[in-house]
Amino acid sequence: MAREGKSTEVKLSHTAALILQALDAGFVYGFSIMEMTGLPSGTVYPAMRRLESDALIRSNWERQSIADAEQRPARKYYKLTAAGKTTLEASRKRYPLLERLIPTGEAKTV
Amino acid sequence: MRPWLERANRLLQLGFLRCASLLVPDRQRAEWRREWRAELWHVRQERSPEGAVSWHGEREVTAFCLGAFQDAFCIRRSGRQEKPDFPAMEGTARQCMMAFVVMLVASYILSLLLPGVRAERSLWSRKVNANLVLIQQFDGDGSQATISPRQLRRWEERKQKYFDGFAFYRVTQEIVGVEDASPGPQNKSRSKVRWGVARASVNLFALLGIPVQFGEAGGTPRGDLPGVILSERTWKSEFRADAHVAGAVVHLGSHVVRIAGVAPDGSLDLPGHADAWLLDPEVESGPGADGYVIAHLTPAGSAEIWASRVHITARGPDQSEEDLMGVCVEDWHPTPQGLYLFALFLAVLSLPAITAVSLGESSPSLQQTSWLGRLRRWSFLVFKIALLLPIVYFLSLDLAYGCTTLGREQAGLVQLFSTFSMCLFGMRWVLKDQRQRCPVCLRRVVHPAQVGQASRTFLAWNGTEMMCMGGHTLLHVPSLPTSWFGTQRWLYLDPSWAFLFVGKSAGMENEAISGLL
Lengths: 110, 517
Prior knowledge:
The complex is a heterodimer of chains A (110) and B (517).
Chain A: H1 14-24, H2 30-37, H3 41-53, E1 57-61, H4 64-69, E2 76-80, H5 82-94, H6 98-101
Antiparallel strand pairs in A: 1-2
Chain B: H1 3-21, H2 26-47, H3 55-82, H4 93-113, H5 115-124, E1 132-137, H6 149-157, E2 163-179, E3 190-200, H7 204-208, E4 227-231, H8 232-239, E5 249-252, E6 255-263, E7 276-279, E8 292-297, H9 299-302, E9 309-315, E10 321-328, H10 336-354, H11 371-402, H12 408-435, E11 446-451, E12 463-467, E13 473-478, E14 489-492, H13 508-516
Parallel strand pairs in B: 3-7, 4-6
Antiparallel strand pairs in B: 1-8, 1-10, 2-3, 2-5, 2-8, 4-7, 5-6, 9-10, 11-12, 12-13, 13-14
Helix pairs in contact in B: 1-2, 1-3, 2-3, 4-11, 4-13, 5-11, 10-12, 11-12
């Protein structure tokens, strides 16, 4: 994954672009992205750390009350930032198959 | 899958997560664990739910957990990059000064901790009294004891114009039993040796002005046993320079005495070669054999000294006159400070022989440095030298006097050579370091690159180029000085070079310089 200046055009690797596309499609936590992209956990989570440190995505914890109500642990959700959306647009031009692999609005659950 | 196997598998998966979490920096670990455990719960629900556990599902869950290690490594690596890294300090003036200060503090603390150096330091405040003479026969050489206690008593009873204090001692050979003072069983061994024991007036050491080392309460004996003061030579040979020797019991012939301290060598080059000094108030009163007399001269008496000698005429009981000679007793041993200054002087004299003393600032482009920059550069050099000198001083003391088994003269030699070597090579390093400091930010130039070929020295540039990581300068050092390129030169980089130093130069020089001044 390229980590250049944020103001200039950022060139992402295919994996990183795929993860951004999955997030944009509504797959907002690590395991769902793994499921969607078919990438292993050892690839997806580190890639998301880098995307987050490059401010292309941001994360926030689910409210504990919601998790308690559903009797499961609270999970961490990821979301595209404005810079992430711009970068994703540029990546789609670079990788035209992205949208075919993961169409926007594909996610069934959040 | 059997329930116990399922439980073991889950424990193993949790163990993987726990181990991987140890790789994550402390401040991020709790949140990292929380996220992975939550994800694991969902993975397990999806792949290996309760009641439908399968080998395939468990294998996928385990593979998921193993991915945590890669994630943890990733966080660890990025954490390292984010740290305010020490490499930014590398080569800066601040780092150099900090290293010097640490060395200075360490060497000073070491000198405070080493008993030998402490003892040596205690001697500095007190020196052998001036105007002391050893009274001997006029034609004698001073090695023979010639003054009887009766004669001394007669002198003391009369009012003296030229002397205001006398001390007497007599040396006899005695068999001495030294008890093993080490803690342990009661049946302590006692070794027998032959010592030259000087029975001396109680005021001998006060008259000489010699401090007693390693003693208790200024060398006063503990308990009701008389005190004996060891010579430094005896202390080292018989007691292995034990700093806690005071209080040990010694059998001097039929007397039992206790060691009260150690008299330093050099200060006691008195005839008789005594191994121990027994302060005995009775030594002057009895008839006894002849001994040696030390006398302190009054100002009127010291005015009579000629060539370290003074002629004395003593009157006997029958008013007969006896010619005696007073020979000055002097502590001729050089002090550590004197040795240090002498070695420093020699090192300064020798320095041009091993390095160029020029700072390589004769570059025509030097005018690009402001006067403030030049002031900083010179101040840095002065600070380095000012810190180097006390470091060398304390280290030389540690080396010379830290080892208490060395004799005083040997210790002096060790101090002389160590001071000379450290000053010489230390100042050489200081000058070399100064020559390789960027005139703008005082960082050391790095990344030496050999340019040119030795065979083309007189046709083209051949030398080494080094670069300031702040992006200010390039240093050219010729491999072989020529008439057209004799010394190193600084090339000041213009802004077109800035792209090479993006993210490195900003604030670097300010940090380095503000830390210095």
